[in-house]
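Quick one, tokens below:
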């Protein structure tokens, strides 16, 4: 059978692989029942649903005409990974706010165009939101600023 939609084909395979992974890993835990769920219940149900959804998408890829795969670019993958590593390393010495600034600006370099004004506005909004949610709302013990700033 010919693949008519490569994008859906690979997405379906990925869904099936993740679903089967969760089903296999969850075998080592106690299942329980719908009323009294065990630790394996949620990953098993979620993995099963994901595998079935992947099979549906995979079948559609063989029947319905769709888009091809775009050219893979390593630039976004590199900059997003770099920003996450930098955030982890800089969180303690620079504080939450400055580490977020580094995270957002380095991530923005991974896009197809970089506009400093837009990234600056996005940074301010995300910092306010992140501080409100993680520091104030969830009371996570992140230092907001570096120690030398007090």
């Amino acid at each position: 059978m010919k693949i008519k939609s490569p994008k859906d084909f690979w997405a379906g395979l990925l869904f099936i692989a993740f679903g089967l992974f969760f089903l296999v890993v969850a075998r080592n835990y106690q299942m329980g029942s719908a009323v009294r769920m065990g630790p394996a219940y949620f990953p098993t149900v979620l993995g099963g649903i994901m595998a079935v959804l992947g099979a549906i998408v995979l079948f559609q890829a063989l029947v319905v005409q769709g888009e091809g795969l775009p050219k893979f670019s390593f630039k976004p993958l590199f900059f997003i990974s770099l920003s996450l590593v930098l955030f982890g390393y800089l969180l303690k010495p620079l504080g939450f706010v400055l580490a977020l600034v580094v995270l957002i600006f380095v991530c923005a370099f991974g896009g197809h165009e970089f506009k400093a004004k837009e990234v600056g506005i996005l940074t301010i909004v995300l910092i306010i939101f992140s501080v409100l949610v993680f520091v104030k709302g969830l009371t996570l013990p992140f230092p907001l600023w570096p120690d030398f700033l007090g």
